[in-house]
Amino acid sequence: MPTAPAELDSRYADEQPALSGDGRFLAFVSNRDGMRSLLLYDLQQKRFIPLPRLNRGDAIAESPSLSYSARYIVYVASDRARPEIELYDRATQQIAVLTSGYRGWVRNPSISPDGRYIAFETGIRGQWDIEVLDRGTNIELDLLNRPRSR
Amino acid sequence: MKLRLLLLISCLYLSACGAGRLVRFPYDVGGRSLNSPFAEQKPRVSGRYVVFTSDRRGSQDIFLYDMTNRALVDLPGLNALDMIASTPSVTEDGRFIIFHGVREGRSGIYLYDRDTRQLRNLTENIKAEVRNPTISADGFRIAFESSAKGQWDIVLINRNGQVLSR
Predict the structure, then answer these.
(1) What domains are defined for chain A?
(2) pLDDT of residue A148
(3) Residues 6+ apart with CB under 8 A from A46
(4) B residues 75..134 contacting A (CB < 8 A)
(5) 3-state secondary structure of A95
(6) Closest Cβ–Cβ partner in A112, A129, A150 for B40
(7) Is pLDDT of A12 > 90?
């Protein structure tokens, strides 16, 4: 886990930036520390945020997307026969595999700022198309610290 | 019909694992909906909007879909004949779209304002390759990759193109 703020400007490649809806957090994929990892950086406090259990030694996590306050992170995890889209909840540190029953090839997920919708690419029709997953209204939406309206 | 069946099946699978349900937006062969007979790629969802690229008009263009109205939103002045547009991102209010554009062999990070219909290259002064832009849902921060230091690094700017400290 990199610590110092200067480390954001690393000697290694940092790719696939994703901003939280409020602009405070930056997620990206990095090759530092000899491993390809998904990192979350707090631009306000200038420090990295630990993501316990997200980066596993036997998997590569890529294509991150963040909800409004970065409570939810969706990404593609490649540790199975095919890549799966996973949802990481920073509040519970739990990972949910969102596409385990889905039959098409999937990639490039994106989560809405409130955390309810996830759009992703699907190869189910033999070309890339867009699928939108609705997590419903029974989830805890990421509505903390939001300005009431803009 | 076959598509609806497929979607229904995948719905059942997904709800079985508790992830949620797939939203069945209309599929339109004429290219007036989210999905078409052509490729749709790089979706970003923000608020009621999904922004994505599609080659349904013969070149790779950017489209904005309104999930509430279930219709495409016009983007006058965004898709230019001499530009290849990719990796779009949209603010939650649907006003700003940021994307990667290649024009005359030069890549740039472009900002489109739906209110003013203005298109601006925010990285005109950066002498490097740039790619993969994203805008925060509130519209105040933009991040992208730059090759200025001989590798891909992440740069943060605001909507005026000013580099923000990290």
Answers:
(1) 10-134 (2.120.10.30)
(2) 60
(3) A5, A8, B166
(4) 92-93, 132, 134
(5) strand
(6) A129
(7) no
Taking alpha carbons only, the member of B44, B105, B74, B71 closest to residue A64 is B44
pTM of the model: 0.91
Pick from A8, A11, A121: which is nearest to B166 by CB?
A: A8
pLDDT of residue A4: 38
**Is B44 close to A46, i.e. CB distance below 8 A?**
no
Scan for tokens 């790089």, then name that residue: B42
Q: Which residues of B touch A119 (CB under 8 A)?
A: 43-45, 50, 52
ipTM: 0.91
> Which residue type occupies B56?
R
Q: Which residues contact A146 (CB under 8 A, 6 or more apart)?
A: A22, A68
**Residues of chain B neighbouring A13 (CB-CB closer than 8 A):** 151-153
Measured between CB atoms, does B140 come within 8 Å of chain A? Answer: yes
Q: pLDDT tens-digit profile of A45-87?
A: 999 999 999 988 778 899 999 999 999 999 999 877 789 999 9
The answer regarding whether domain B30-157 maps to CATH 2.120.10.30 reads yes
Measured between beta carbons, which residues in chain A are less than 8 angstroms from residue B23?
A: 117, 132-134
| pLDDT tens by residue, A96-148 | 999 988 988 999 999 999 999 999 999 999 999 999 999 998 899 998 667 66
Contacts of A41 (CB under 8 A, 6+ apart): A8, A25, A26, A27, A28, A47, A48, A49, B166
Q: Do A132 and B25 touch (CB under 8 A)?
A: yes
The residue type of B28 is D
Note whether A134 contacts B38, CB cutoff 8 Å: no
* For chain B, domain boundaries: 30-157
CA distance A3 to A47: 6
